[in-house]
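Ticket closed. Logging final result for Lipoprotein.
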Amino acid sequence: MRNTAKFTTAVLAAGALTLGLTACGSDKDSASDTSGPLVVAASPTPHAEILDYVKDNLAKKAGLDLEVKEFTDYVTPNTATEDGSVGANYFQTQPYLDDFNKKNGTHIVSVVDVHLEPLGLYSHKVKKADDLKSGATVAVPNDTVNEGRALQLLASHGIITLKDGVGTAATPADITKNPKNLEFKELEAAQTPRSLDDVDAAVVNGNYAIEADLKPAQDALVLESAKGNPNSNLLAVKEGHEDDPRVKKLAELLNSPEVKKFIEDEYAGAVLPSF
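Final structure:
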């Protein structure tokens, strides 16, 4: 999931879109017809690209008929999964999915984690996080989930300490120890890479890092780990369809060594396998 800042707009729009679910549906419920192709709703990059790799290189041998449908919003993939227009989706994180289900009364469940688009700490002024001076200014995304992730990233590397249990809801007010007396500048997520000439460091989302020609694996002072990260992007289905043999095959392929290598080779650290 590439732009967490879009979540609020997407969720607000969900009510209106839900009223028109039949309009975005199909004559045939692709989720219940396990003899047909598995239709998966996905964001274009990297989700649909990863699915296309599976379709072109792995699916036929595994006996999986896979169809990929691209969506550019963060609402329709879930509403289409809920009403059976598609059999699965691949675009979101668990925190977003939980929030969506709660606010929209949907019944979408995770099947398997696939990848992480990691946040990283970047700087044009220092080469290592330890080189940040006392009183340095660090830009962080200002939306709830990404700001919490940014602060958790810094805490996981001992740069700050946070209150126990704050998770991705963390804000600068939850900092309990700040040895370098860092000052935090809260910005729109898309603005964080553009701030690098004006601040000492910035925490930047993976997709915005790519757009700014930053190479996470090489340029980040510290970088989120994919293992066990709750913000991994996942394959999801409507509750009750987890045992669909087509879904099981796709989940296995998405966690295969071939897909892991494809992600590592194609995205050079901007996208990380979560398995």
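The chain has a mean pLDDT of 88. No further action required.
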